[in-house]
Amino acid sequence: MSTNNADRTCTPSPATFGVPWPEFNDGLTYRDLLRSPDSGLTLIDFYSLRHHSSAPLLGWLQRIENGQITVDGTIVTDPKTVLRIGTELVYHRLPWKEPYAPHLLEVLFEDDHLIALNKPSGLQVLPGGLFQQRTVLTQLQWRIKNQGPALTDRELCPVPVHRLGRGTSGILLCAKTKLAKTRLAALFADKTAAVASNRKINMEVNHGKMSKIYMALACGIINEDEVVIEQPIGTLKYPGVAKGLYVASSSGKPALSKVRVLKRDVQNNRTVVQVEIQSGRPHQIRIHLSFIGHPLIGDPLYIIGGKPKCTAPETIDETFAEDGGYHRPANPVPGDCGYHLHAHQLIFRHPITDEVCLQIRVDCFVIFP
């Protein structure tokens, strides 16, 4: 892995940070306030109806009997306890061993308001699913906390302002202050809004307030030197993904990707491409390249057409994992790694100083020879 910089305003900081993950995380606490439609339900009915996506019925019975749920501050182990409006329910999820994830992050650029990181493949950005502690957000918060009181707690807001898939490596821009978070989020949102409203977008890399450029390794040989993909992206129901899986869909939201061929490897039937995304739909590059018939090499989920490999529902598994939760889905899910996608270059205006054309770049010659 090597880094280089093309602009005066962003000199990379060759430093890494990261604390090894503890064996167990801290567990989680979920709170619910019972509202009118649920008044009169029993404890087990409430959880099996309102939170069925996180555990089967037998799993919720186990959690109740283990004393993991309190009702108005009191542990209740009778699943037939009747609930009333205004009741506060608290479910305490026990600490668990999260799957392996790298913990070291490289600092590419940092000032008082921003920090740009080189995220390794295999590290999730924000908490979700099995990964609640082993995330970029956790390491960033630990680092800012240990740096000392340079800023007040009211000013601090260490948080990534966009996402990269768990299997995607490369540049991740994070805010350190609340003001930077607000303004950076607006920059990212403006690009997506421009696509949605069909506003004319300058496709030149060095123009505009925000430009995200990726490198990807695609299956097959792409004959055109440049391809613009405007396939909308929507969702469909999918096992193991509570809010639905993002896929190519004519009824979805507008999305725009510009693909440029960098290298055609005829012998191995693959193409190295550069992709600039003008919108920020989840899994956009994976979906768009698979939609045109060139899914990413090693992608365990998306196939030609921008659809998932598995569309049939899984066989219902009546057993459940530790702490009553569902076992990991047998079908591939979006967080699975194996594909080759790297956030290669980021060009943007500084949200505080308004300096034009800050450029951060990190190459990856191991993945893309």
TrEMBL record:
- InterPro entries for this protein: PsdUridine_synth_cat_dom_sf, PsdUridine_synth_RluA-like_CS, PsdUridine_synth_RsuA/RluA, RluA_PseudoU_synthase
Q: Which residues form a coiled coil?
A: none
Q: Which GO terms describe its biological process?
A: enzyme-directed rRNA pseudouridine synthesis
**PANTHER family according to UniProt:** MITOCHONDRIAL RNA PSEUDOURIDINE SYNTHASE, RNA PSEUDOURIDINE SYNTHASE 5
Where's the Pseudouridine synthase RsuA/RluA-like domain?
113-290
Q: Which UniProt keywords apply?
A: RNA-binding
Q: Which domain of life is it from?
A: Eukaryota
Q: Name one GO molecular function term.
A: RNA binding
User: Reaction catalysed?
Assistant: a uridine in RNA = a pseudouridine in RNA
Instruction: Write down what this protein is called.
Output: Pseudouridine synthase RsuA/RluA-like domain-containing protein
The yes or no answer to whether the keyword RNA-binding is present is: yes
Q: Which SUPFAM superfamilies match?
A: Pseudouridine synthase (SSF55120)
Organism, per UniProt?
A: Centaurea solstitialis
CDD domains given in the database record: PseudoU_synth_RluA_like (cd02869), S4 (cd00165)
Does RNA-binding appear among the keywords? yes
Q: Please name the PROSITE patterns in this protein's record.
A: PSI_RLU (PS01129), S4 (PS50889)
Q: Name one Pfam family in it.
A: PseudoU_synth_2
